[in-house]
Each structure stands twice: as C-alpha cells, then as structure tokens.
Design brief:
Structural class: alpha+beta
Distance between the termini: 30 Å
Strand content: 25-35%
Helix content: 25-40%
CATH class: Alpha Beta
Order of helices and strands: EEEH
Number of domains: 1
Radius of gyration: 13 Å
Number of helices: 1
Shape: globular
CATH topology: Double Stranded RNA Binding Domain
Strand order of the largest sheet: 1-2-3
Oligomer: single chain
C-alpha cells in the first residue's frame, strides 16, 4: 500500500503531512527522518491512538 504525502523544507527542518490527513503534520531533521515520522503518524492515526481523527475524502456529485 502507498500513501501520498506533502513535504517541504523550512530552514533546517523537513515538514510534511499525509495527503489523506492534512491536519496532522510531522517533521524531521532529514527527509528520511520525516518519512519515518510520517509512517509512525499513519500508524497512530489509523490505530486509534489519536481520537477524533479528521480525514479528507472525495464525494462524487452530479
């Protein structure tokens, strides 16, 4: 399974969030650390460790 994420560099830190969960950001000193933190965040978001998780979904309208 693959999940898309958005990331950028801000001074000496890398910041990012999972596209599906844009309200939940994380950071890392390197891109690799950021990816590891995003994986941890995904586990917490989907495992129930964080209550009342807000999520982005798509609605088809005609």
């Amino acid at each position: 399974m693959k999940k898309k994420y958005v990331y950028w560099r801000d001074d000496d830190m890398w910041l990012g969030y999972l596209e599906e969960y844009p309200d939940y950001w994380t950071q890392g000193e390197t891109e690799d650390t950021l990816r590891e933190n995003l994986l941890d965040l995904y586990s917490e978001l989907t495992g129930g460790a964080i209550p009342y998780v807000r999520k982005v979904a798509e609605l088809e309208v005609s």
